[in-house]
Amino acid sequence: MAESNLGPSANGLRVAVVGAGPAGFYATDMLAKHGASVDLFERLPAPFGLLRYGVAPDHQNIKRAGVAFERTAQLANVHYFGNVAIGRDLGVDDLLRDYDQVLFAIGAASDRKLGIPGEQLHGSVAATSFVGWYNGHPDFSGLSFDLGTERAVVVGMGNVALDVARILVRRTAELGTTDISDYALAALEKSAVREVVLLGRRGPAQAAFDQGELVDIAGLSGVEVVIDGEVSNDGAGELSGPARRNLDYLASLPRAPSGNAERVVRLRFLASPKALLGAAERVTALEVERTALSVRADGSVSARGTGIVDSIDTGLVIRSIGYQGTPIPGLPFDEQRSVIPNQAGRVGLAGEPFDRCYVVGWIKRGPVGLLGSNKQDAKETVDCMLGDADKALAERAKRTPGAVPGLLRERGVRAVSYADWRRLDEKERARGAERGKVREKFASWQGLLGALDET
Ligand code: NAP
Predict the structure, then answer these.
(1) How distant, in Å, are the alpha carbons of 101, 169, 179, 273 from that of 15?
(2) What is the pLDDT of residues 81-115, one digit of tens each?
(3) 251 CA to centre of ligand 1 in angstroms
(4) What is the end-to-end Cα distance of the chain in Å, rounded?
(5) What number does the ligand 1 atom closest to the CA of 373 have?
(6) Quick one: CA dihedral 228, 230, 232, 234, positive or negative?
(7) In CATH, what number does 111-323 get?
């Protein structure tokens, strides 16, 4: 195979990429620049995955990464098929019959459960739903959240938990120019929430969030961040580096609100949720058990219950304990880790490859890492794909290239092209401009697809 200055060439290779989020886009860009022709399939009409529907509306600087994805989508050898769900409209077998290689970048679409009594009560919700709701995701825009409670509890100490807490406490005037959905802004304007308690089952040194994200909340007008209880790493050894700096920063925060703030974010460590209590099917309190730290043989730090239990009165418990990958029919799935098993991106276990199928992003490595982590991840998978390209091309005669658009027509699937998306994009920006906002998303399926029918 000819070598370009980018490395091995993929000239003539036809690839289907499933999932138009950041991981799918980084991989598409690399494949296309190596000469492959890429068809990019997305279940939603709109592209960009978590960049559009996960990144918080007051983090517009992060959303600017979308400019690079827009360039990728407009490369001559990249074609976008929005509103096409693999596993419903097309099977994995349909893709393998048409394309030389198929890359799954389907992310982690579901949420992890706490598995404690009372989790099903009204007022007990997943952060993924709340995030999807304020971001105008068509699967979540129809939900409603009871913000009539004075105190909300967010379980988890990751960056998503901080996003959720920040949206709940930030002055709505500061959100009014972003792309937050109008119905979410209206609900937040009426919100009675004055205190958000963040619960960490381990200690401050084990918190998963980035310190800068908490510093940002502490700097918000009218908001105070306080720590409930002592800040220590008792039972978990000496600290250095970023964990030490985190602990020092947390130790510098006040232990009690001054009484002058409009809203308070309270961080409570060494507290594990035990049960949601309710009345008339609604959450009224969260029972928590105090924990203590211990170090495992491998050096990792775990929390064990101490038997000391108390409860926090609240009408809203948002669990923010991580996203979870879901299986795709026709591919293997690791139930334990909720990923598609793979070797450096090649689907399958060692010695049992799943021919011509690859993974990238959260469905490959689990739901961790920032936007940029997907670049290195995509490079690893794309290197495998390029290494396997000769073999895939040599077997081309077994396939029927170009069959998919016909299948979609036969099955009555309305695929959204990139030109269609650009029309939607323009309309959303115009709707936003009318309201003094960056954009106003079409937040329902009907709204998204209906807007394409208008001239
Ligand atoms: P995460 O970083 O994995 O945090 C999950 C949190 O949930 C941890 O504090 C974890 O505690 C806790 N947890 C897990 N199971 C629990 C249980 N059963 N009971 C109580 N607590 C439990 O996940 P995430 O916040 O969903 O974020 C996902 C990824 O997206 C992360 O890599 C994050 O950095 C990234 N992200 C970045 C940004 C940003 O840059 N602004 C914004 C959003 C997300 P343990 O540590 O004890 O397990």
Answers:
(1) 5, 45, 33, 45
(2) 999 999 999 999 999 999 999 999 999 999 999 99
(3) 21
(4) 47
(5) 32
(6) negative
(7) 3.50.50.60
Of 172, 170, 168, nearest in space to 186 by CA: 172
Beta strands 223-228 and 195-199, pairing class: unpaired
CA distance 105 to 378: 10
Chain center to CA of 106: 11
Pocket test for ligand 1, best of 50, 201, 202, 317 (most atoms within 8 A of CB): 201
- Alpha helices per DSSP H over 10-118: 22-33, 49-53, 60-63, 66-73, 92-98
Residue 104 · residue 18 · CB < 8 Å: yes
Question: What is this structure's pTM?
Answer: 0.96
- Alpha-carbon span 223 to 203, nearest angstrom: 23
Question: What's the 320 CA to ligand 1 centre distance in angstroms?
Answer: 7
Topology adopted by domain 14-109+325-416 = Rossmann fold (3.40.50)
What is the identity of the amino acid at 416? V
pLDDT in tens, 224-268: 999 998 888 888 888 888 888 889 999 999 999 999 999 999 999
Is 158 close to ligand 1, i.e. is its CB under 6 Å away?
yes
Distance from the alpha carbon of residue 164 to the mean position of ligand 1, in angstroms: 12
Q: Which atom of ligand 1 is closest in space to residue 202's alpha carbon?
A: 47
Per-residue pLDDT at 351 exceeds 70: yes
C-beta separation of 105 from 27 below 8 A:
yes
Residue 109 Cα, ligand 1 centroid: separation in angstroms? 15
Best mutation site among 61, 124, 157 for ligand 1 pocket (most ligand atoms within 8 Å of CB) = 157
d(CA 365, CA 344): 9
Domain ranges in the chain are 14-109+325-416, 111-323
Atom of ligand 1 nearest to the CA of 323: 26
Average pLDDT in the chain: 95
Give the position, in ligand 1's atom list, of the atom nearest the Cα of 303. 47
Instruction: Name the pairing type of β-strands 301-313 and 282-295.
Output: antiparallel
